[in-house]
Structure prediction request, 214 residues.
Amino acid sequence: MRRLTASLLLALSLALAGLTPSAKAHPHAWIDLKSTLIFDEDGQIVAVEMYWLFDDFYTAFVLEDIEYATDGKAAALIELAGANLENLAEYGYFADFQADGERVTYGPVETYDSGMEGERLWMSFVVPLSRPVDPREERVTFAVYDPTYYIEILYVAEGEKLRLSPEDTGCTAQIQPPNPDPEVVAFAASLGPEESGGDSLGLLFAETVTVECP
Prediction:
C-alpha cells in the first residue's frame, strides 16, 4: 500500500516525525490522483477539479488525532483540508497548468471537501484558473507533481483518471507517462529521507496531460 507525507503541507509535515529509519529513497510519500478539466459554455477551460487519495500511512497519522465521524464528513477533516490548501496555494497546489508553454496562475480555492474512501483519506478541491484558456487557440498541458519528488503523485486506474466536464466538449485529453533518464532514477533512489532532490526533480517523474481539440 502506498504511503504519504509531505514536507510542504501544514499538517502533512508533521507526519515526517513518524517516518521510520528504514525509509531510504525518494519518494517517501504517495497520492493517487483523479482530475477533471472544467469548461465553460464557450468551450474554454476555467478550472481544474482534483481528487487526492492519500496513502494509508498519512491516513493513520491523521486519524490518530482526529475524532472521525462515520458518515465521512467529519468537521475536523474538512478543517484540515482547508489548512492544507492554504499552504498548497503558495506552491500552486502542486499543479502546473500551461498554455502555449506559459504557466497559468490560479485563483484561491473556495470549493473543497474531504472524507474517507475505505481506509484511506481523500481530499477534493476545485482550482480556478486566473483566466479562461481556449484549448483550440492555445496548446494546453497540465501536470501535478511535488517539485522535490518527496511525494509521488500519479493518476489512478485507466478509465477513471482524467475527465472533461462537460463530456461533450469535442476535446480529448491524453496522459503522457514520464520517461526519466536512468541516471535521474538512480539519483532519486539515492536520496535519504532528510535529503532534497531540488525544486525540479519531481517534474522529471510527472505525468503530463495534453489537451487536443478539433
Q: What stands out?
A: The first helix runs from residue 56 to 65. Residues 93 and 175 are 19 Å apart (CA to CA). The chain is about 15% helix and 35% strand. The radius of gyration is 17 Å.
